[in-house]
Design brief:
612 residues, single chain, mainly alpha
């Protein structure tokens, strides 16, 4: 295999900052999502550090109770909505069109719009720090904590309107990927020949489209309660605070699977590659993902066992929560079956995938203990819950995302991350993860409540909190090693288009991929198509599995860059910003958004000079 020795030439319209602002190339949008989400990952990590340093010792006064509330609210909100979700969408953008043999997503300009709305919505929420009116009611923002008497500044308005803006981005992106996967698959790629990651993308996208309207209704009602005198969640006006919990968790539990299904898909690609054998039980992995997506709508009230729903409701949701562990267990056994008697290569990506499986099992087992409503009465609002969610979302989602980063980085950049530094980063993150979050199980069982900013030494919680805070420092060093690894690739040589001997179509083209992806759209003959092509070449007595020759991008019909998506996104964001400042700004934003949509609608899909 010969190395790719240079970066693919791009049309002049892609050059410079303006090129990034106007791009509709799904691969560039993937990079924008990934870089933005990683920056927010560092922001959320700093917020977590403040929390851990405050709790490192008893009777600590590093920060005030109010600032502590702000830190854990923004930490959780940032990690869920601005880190794990967009990092997954980054992989959706880069991998899915390549994996299904498409030249781009179905709606390239809508894809760009979804990124810019996400970015501006996230920045709008973080403007709360600039004006020092930071949300402080938790990422769940339970009523009545969110009502004016208990949250008098604009912090919860920043939170609600920021989420409304980002929700529009999520729905747009979800619709785009559903249409892309259904309509743009290469000839021969039936649904049951799609890679598991593409299946998980499809299920996640459907969940996004269906779940975000629910939280949108709740957020609109919350904004109206706070600003327009309605009483949806105010008991004195006939409202019901429990209604907010239902709306939030009807969205919030599908959201958990929105966060975990994409990493499950990543792991289902990584394990077969480095076990040198096809995924064991492919149909079972696919259908278990579908069942998880369906059953995710039937378990939301296990977050509400202590609000007084009654024994019938508690019993029903106890049963459904236990049942949803079954398809998850099926996936785990199929991953183990893939490893069984495989020729395992312990690359950094493989180690993160194995770490995902191990840590997710711990999080799953603690989740089953929450499913039993009587024991949940003891665990509710303790650090046992904090331990569970971090084993699922850090040990699960983040480790899966790191596995995907090391796996697809050579395809994204044409360069390889250093394996020695990668394995050092893995062990630091694995050890730091367990040091930080495993002691929280014991703290919860010993009665330490969530969301307290300090505690007395007499409770005996200090030692475990100190261990957890040391673990945070180990995690921080692991992230620093990862950043150093990324930085040093600037001087690395370009590697083969297929450094892992991988099975997916994305590895059959140059690295980094050309703007058009495939000069000739491939025909798919079965699952793991590139392995099929390589086996045929080997049977014919040749090892020639080089990527197709590069062609002039201007000879292939591709959509032109456009400034209308970012223009429209500015208008949408100003509509939300006006609700936080002056309604006149919302009117201006609406006018800008309308102009953007009209301009977008009248713009040719491809500039005449590029139309071949």
């Amino acid at each position: 295999m010969s190395a790719i020795t240079g970066v693919i030439a791009r049309p002049t319209s892609y050059v410079g900052i303006w090129g990034w602002m106007t791009t509709v190339d799904h691969k560039r949008i993937a990079v924008l999502y990934g870089v933005t989400a990683f920056i927010f990952f560092l922001v959320g990590g700093i917020e977590a550090g403040v929390i851990r340093m405050q709790l490192a010792s008893a009777d600590n006064e590093l920060i005030t109770a109010g600032r502590f509330n702000q830190m854990f609210t923004m930490h959780a909100t940032t990690m869920v909505f601005m880190v794990i979700m967009p990092l997954s969408v980054s992989f959706f953008n880069f991998v899915v069109p390549l994996a299904i043999g498409a030249r781009d997503v179905a709606f390239p300009r809508l894809n760009a719009l979804s990124f810019w709305i996400f970015l501006f919505g996230a920045l709008l929420m973080h403007m709360a720090f600039v004006v020092d009116q930071v949300p402080d009611a938790g990422w769940f923002s339970y009523a009545n904590l969110t009502e004016k008497p208990f949250s008098v500044n604009r912090g919860l308005d920043f939170w609600a309107i920021g989420l409304l803006v980002m929700g529009a981005a999520s729905v747009a992106g979800g619709l785009n990927f559903v249409v892309t996967i259904i309509n743009l698959r290469a000839p021969g790629m039936s649904m049951m020949r799609m890679p598991v990651f593409v299946w998980m993308t499809l299920i996640t996208s459907i969940l996004l489209v269906l779940a975000f309207p629910v939280i949108t209704v709740g957020l609109i009602e919350l904004v109206m309660d706070r600003n327009f005198g309605t009483h949806f969640f105010i008991p004195t006006g006939g409202g019901d605070p429990v209604l907010w919990q239902h709306l939030f968790w009807v969205f919030g539990h599908p959201e958990v699977y929105i966060l975990i299904l994409p990493p499950m898909g990543i792991v289902s690609e990584v394990l077969p590659t480095f076990s040198r054998k096809p995924l064991f039980g492919y149909p079972f992995v696919v259908f278990s993902g579908i069942v998880i997506g369906i059953m995710g709508w039937a378990v939301w009230s296990h977050h509400m066992f202590t609000v007084g729903l009654g024994p019938v409701a508690n019993s029903v949701f106890t049963i459904t929560t236990m049942l949803i562990a079954v398809p998850t267990g099926i996936k785990i056994f199929n991953w183990i079956g893939t490893l069984w008697k495989g020729s395992i290569e312990f690359t950094t990506s493989m180690m993160f995938a194995l770490g995902f499986v191990a840590l997710f099992i711990v999080g799953g087992l603690s989740g089953v203990s929450h499913a039993v409503s009587p024991s949940d009465f003891q665990q509710q609002d303790t650090y046992y819950i904090v331990a569970h969610i971090h084993y699922v979302l850090f040990g699960g989602s983040i480790f899966g995302i790191f596995a995907g980063t090391y796996y697809w980085y050579p395809k994204i950049t044409g360069k390889m991350l250093d394996e020695t530094l990668g394995k050092l980063s893995f062990w630091l993150l694995f050890i730091g993860m367990n040091l930080t979050f495993f002691p929280l199980h014991f703290l919860g069982l010993n009665g330490m409540p969530r969301r307290i900013y300090t505690y007395s030494a007499e409770f005996g919680w200090e030692n475990m909190n100190q261990i957890a805070s040391v673990g945070y420092l180990v995690l921080a060093v692991g992230i620093i090693v990862f950043v150093v690894n990324m930085w040093q690739t600037r001087r690395s040589r370009f590697v083969s288009h297929d450094p892992w001997d991988a099975p997916g179509l994305e590895w059959s083209i140059a690295s980094p991929p050309p703007p058009y992806n495939f000069a000739v759209v491939p025909t798919v003959e079965g699952l793991d198509q590139y392995w099929i092509m390589k086996e045929r070449a080997e049977a014919a007595g040749t090892l020639n599995t080089e990527p197709e020759a590069l062609v002039d991008p201007d000879t292939i019909h591709m959509p032109s860059p456009s400034y209308w998506p970012i223009f429209t996104a500015v208008g949408v964001t100003l509509v939300g910003g006006g609700l936080l400042s002056h309604f006149a700004l919302s009117f201006v934003g609406g006018a800008i958004a309308m102009m953007g949509v009209i301009g977008w609608g009248n713009e040719p899909a491809t500039a005449p000079s590029d139309d071949h």
